[in-house]
Amino acid sequence: xxxxxxxxxxDVLRAIEDKGYTQPTPIQEQxxxxxxxxxxxxxxxxxxxxxxxxxxxxxxxxxxSGRARARxxxxxxxxxxxxxxxxxxxxxxxxGKHHKLSMALLxxxxxxxxxxxRLDRGVDVLIATPxxxxxxxxxxxxxxxxxxxxxxxxxxxxxxMGFIPDIERIVSKLPKLRQTLFFSATMPPEIRRLADAFLxxxxxxxxxxxxxxxxxxxxxxxxxxxxxxxxxxRHLLRTxxxxxAFIFCNRKRDVAILQKSLESHGFNxxxxxxxxxxxxxxxTLEAFKKGEITLLVCSDVAARGLDVQGLSHVxxxxxxxxxxxxxxxxxxxxxAGRSGRAFTLASPLDGxxxxxxxxxxxxxxxxxxxxxxxxAEFLSEDEARRGRSRGRGKDKERGDRAPRAxxxxxxxxxxxxxxxxxxxxxxxxxxxxxxxxEDRPVxxxxxxxxxxxxxxSLAAVENRRQEPRRDxxxxxxRRRDEDEDDTPVIGFGDHMPAFMLRSARRPAPAEPAEQxxxxx
Length: 520
Ligand code: AMP
Fold this sequence. Notes:
The protein has helices spanning 10-19, 26-36, 51-63, 82-95, 112-121, 130-138, 155-160, 164-172, 189-198, 213-216, 229-239, 252-264, 278-290, 300-303, 323-330, 351-361, 381-389, 413-428, 458-464, 472-486, 498-501, 513-519, and strands spanning 41-44, 75-78, 103-106, 125-128, 149-152, 179-184, 203-206, 217-223, 245-248, 269-272, 295-298, 313-316, 340-346. With 520 residues, the protein is α/β, with parallel strands linked by helices. It has two domains: 3-206, Rossmann fold; 217-408, P-loop containing nucleotide triphosphate hydrolases (Rossmann fold, 3-Layer(aba) Sandwich), CATH 3.40.50.300. Mean pLDDT is 78; it is low at 391-451, 466-495 and 510-520.
């Protein structure tokens, strides 16, 4: 199919041609005609599928006629993070370059004054994170009753980050008669309920996630003692042909510490995490995209959804707490059929998380040894728990205390919430609903030493990688099932959003008996 067959205006088509796109992606092919017809759309697609253009392109065509009034934007796009909001703004600039649409980006970390001035001049497209939008609304700087097109992007991420009550408030200020486009990478029941509440008779479009990372990504894991992880990372950075890489840490604090450590060892490294001021975040991201910085140490929250293509490597300095995040992280490399390499640094306390990842990706990540570094073994869960409860943190499995700066910090609210919430939810279940001790899944016992996975050379891992392709559909189904089971709902606090109290779908009314007998 060609872009010209989708019904987009000539100026948008010109911008697409300038950008060099030859064919719409599946989500664009499916969603654009419905958006242009004014229908609500429920899109199940993740970043990397061309999802942003699937709503920005038709919105430009729709908004091309008409003018915005002061403080009354004509369309609103909600994004969970500042970076994603900035990326969407960039798309509007690229695809809308032959139009005169005005746009405002309302994100935290920037001064209100400029943003308010922009709103006063009238904007066609308003792109915002929920918190900042509510702030400006409450100050009376903005009115939402002229919104014609409303987009909620990355809805599942919004749910994870606790933004749903904010979004409900925002939706309550929008006109009832509007077009709503709702995108989410996954569709757990909470998201479905939310979609049912916000959308009116939507067209549902679903596309497969981009090529499963494990098909094009060489994965390997190094299991060392916590205090050897930096040395192991430096070894990998020196021996691998690293053009550019994301290095993921689980905590913001560690991002800054690791970046400084890498710099002091002569590496060209930047940092990206949620506590940095916005201007610095943008500056660092730009420098990384231009190749002025080759290593970007980051947290999941900061890196999620960033449109950075063609990474040669991903390093997990920490094993991610959620197995899903592992897939997201390593999916940053090996995109568009190119090969990529992903290394994970595990410590003895990470056995449980590594098993969860193995179950999700249906394979074990090969363990490799690093010359000159003592290999470690995973502790059993009991041992790990005992180690922790004796106050020996993640970095303490060998007993000797790490320097203060390296000590593990409690994850901040954003990052620790899912796990805490899961525990809290379990606590909230009535006692009889909780699985009895006997019913709970038997914890994996520590493998006897001789059965443990042997360390391999990287070359052996490469050779073995020529495995048959996985059954993608089955994998997607399983991932979705797991999402439904595991995805934590967080961040409602004391507020119970209205959509949670509504049933997901109303059953169709039963036919009256008389009528059916007449018809029969
Ligand atoms: P997204 O899923 O919106 O994050 O888009 C992922 C990447 O795909 C972005 O770098 C887009 O510039 C690019 N892209 C979007 N649509 C197309 C297309 N039709 N052809 C080629 N690349 C595209």
